[in-house]
Amino acid sequence: MVVTENNPYIVLGLFAVIVAVGIVLILKLSKDKTRKISSLRLFIQIAAVFGIFMGLLIGPFNVPLFAPLGPSPRDHLLGAEVLGSQFPDGISVPFLACYYPNGRTVTCGLWQLQAYIFPFWDYPRGYQVNYSTSGLEKIAVTLGMLVAACIVFGRSFCGWVCPFGLYQDLLTRLRKSARLRHLSTSVKRNKQLGQVSYIIIAVALLLSVIFASYVIFGFEIVPGTIPGGPEGTEAGIVSNINEPFCLVCPARPLCIAVQVAAGQMNWSYISQIAYGPFWISGFYFTSINVIIFIIVSLLAFAYRRAWCRICPVGGLSALFSTFTPFKQIALTKLEKDEHKCTKCGVCKRVCPTQATDMYEKKGGDVTESRCILCARCVEICPYGDALKLTFAGKTLAKSRNWLEEGKNISEVAS
Prior knowledge:
Layout: H1 8-29, H2 36-53, H3 80-83, H4 99-102, H5 109-117, E1 125-126, E2 129-130, H6 135-153, H7 156-160, H8 163-177, H9 187-211, H10 213-217, H11 251-261, H12 267-272, H13 287-302, H14 312-319, H15 326-329, E3 332-336, H16 346-350, H17 357-360, E4 364-365, H18 376-380, E5 387-391, E6 394-398, H19 409-412
Helix pairs in contact: 1-2, 5-6, 5-9, 6-14, 8-13, 9-14
């Protein structure tokens, strides 16, 4: 059922009821206590895909301006009506989806940071959108929203609602069904991989600044980047290279493919603006991100949550939640009681991103940049209250003593 202007609240209400009932049933009826949190997380991930990322419930839908594209939601911003002339661009949600199929309604914070530097620093027109605020103002709002979301939720976005995280988890389940063991990197190499996300962020933003040199500094570093080109090349160069990270992001082709499969985007429209057999310069697909998507998929099949280890969007959420001063005020945390931990190592074995602080640190807040707060270590820890997932000091989930209940550690950690 597609949400329209006539029935949005009915459908959204029904969806909320279904999700709430599903959560209660999982919590009450799940027999395998060592998989209860994992089952709940999978259900929430799937619900988030339908309700948020793929734009099946959050509108507006069938906007006339984007009619050829399909009913996928485009550019309906929070607060646009309330803020009015003070901030006519409104406030988007910068942590919930890929821009290309969804527009700015729910979008990617890294896309915003790139795009608001170039091409939309001070250029008011682009991608069928009229901007009223300056690039600096838009970036300030984006960073403000990012910081607020990260302080409240940390990297739980990655563990519980990210669509590409769900895709990787499904690949893991497929590997398990084939009875194949996962591969692991060394502790040193995994820590090095964790730094890659910040390198990607730095390179993407640096390239954006170079592209925007004319509007920021008054001189052109890259020829053809003076704003005011023809439609589709608003900044003077082909618009599909304006956001450099988006050229390589593996989530972009996945989100678009799922939207097309769900009937929310018209393949006939997308395919006709993609040039060449390998989409070399298409606005929605590029040969680069399709190839990277395939490579990342193969890696994620072999290594649990392979992309999460270098994902720049995850890096942004970690930056604003697990490093000083944000770590001290973050609300969602993984906590450890050193007196109840026996260093059995099962938490380290089951972590999908190979985080180690919950094992290596003595106690207290053991949340780290690689931790996606999935709580797998909490549900699998065989010692009661040794690990806890907390929010604002309140316990959301805690470990239980599986040894007293006759469970075998090797069985629950498989």
